[in-house]
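TICKET: design request
STATUS: open
ATTACHED STRUCTURE:
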């Protein structure tokens, strides 16, 4: 039964994830550039039709990616014997409690951090976030097996991204769409919040995808410095995402 549930949840996880991340990249690398060309009439016609439809699959893709991901975490790690090192004296129950607490509280810390004055300085906020993440990865490496360290950092990213969608992006977008539909100018603060959290999700998504498949590569998580590899992959992912943003703003993607 465990193997069948693993198969079903993983299939659903991949489908929902493709739907979610695909729309995320559409919003950030395509629509964000096209929207700059809209005049007031275009916005009033296009936005109320396009955005609710796209955001429907975007937010529900996020929800089901997270739900199936947590179920897989339970089956493969908390009940599957892959959470702890064979020499660990910690019980699986205690380890699962710590893992879930890290995932939930990690989002709380991230959310508070990016509501603080640091949000006005993205570079400083990113550096602080990476330092905190490195500290967390180092600590987890003393509790969990290397493979579980990678997957919990990925789960923290995925949880933060899904929470951003449902708690920050979607509520703001509902108000923005309603204002545009009514012919009013949306609150700039709403656009700033939705835009910032959507950009964060985009940056987190690239290393997230590698962390989620890292179980296939013991050469990166299996050694004593596996947590350093995890942070290195996050940094490389961030740099690649920065390049994608820069590329999307050039004339090249509009050529055919």
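STATUS: resolved
RESOLUTION: sequence designed for all positions
ATTACHED SEQUENCE:
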């Amino acid at each position: 039964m465990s193997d069948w549930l693993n198969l079903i949840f993983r299939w659903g996880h991949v489908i929902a994830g493709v739907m979610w991340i695909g729309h995320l990249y559409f919003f950030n690398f395509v629509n964000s550039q096209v929207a700059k060309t809209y005049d007031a009439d275009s916005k009033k016609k296009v936005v109320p039709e396009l955005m609710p439809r796209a955001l429907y699959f975007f937010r529900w893709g996020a929800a089901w990616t997270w739900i199936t991901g947590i179920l897989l975490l339970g089956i493969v790690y908390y009940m599957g014997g892959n959470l702890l090192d064979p020499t660990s004296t910690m019980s699986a129950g205690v380890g699962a409690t710590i893992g879930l607490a890290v995932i939930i509280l990690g989002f709380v810390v991230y959310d508070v951090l990016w509501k603080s004055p640091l949000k006005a300085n993205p570079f400083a906020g990113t550096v602080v976030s990476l330092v905190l993440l490195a500290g967390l990865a180092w600590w987890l490496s003393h509790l969990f097996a290397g493979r579980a360290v990678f997957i919990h950092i990925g789960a923290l990213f995925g949880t933060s991204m899904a929470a951003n969608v449902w708690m920050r992006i979607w509520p703001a977008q509902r108000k923005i769409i309603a204002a545009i539909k009514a012919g009013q100018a949306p609150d700039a603060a709403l656009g700033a919040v939705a835009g910032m959290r959507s950009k964060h999700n985009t940056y987190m998504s690239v290393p997230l995808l590698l962390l989620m498949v890292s179980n296939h590569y013991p050469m990166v998580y299996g050694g004593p410095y596996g947590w350093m590899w995890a942070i290195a992959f996050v940094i490389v992912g961030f740099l690649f995402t920065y390049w994608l943003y820069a590329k999307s703003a050039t004339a090249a993607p509009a050529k055919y």
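CLOSING REMARK: Residues 40-78 form the longest helix (39 residues). The two ends are 50 Å apart (CA to CA).
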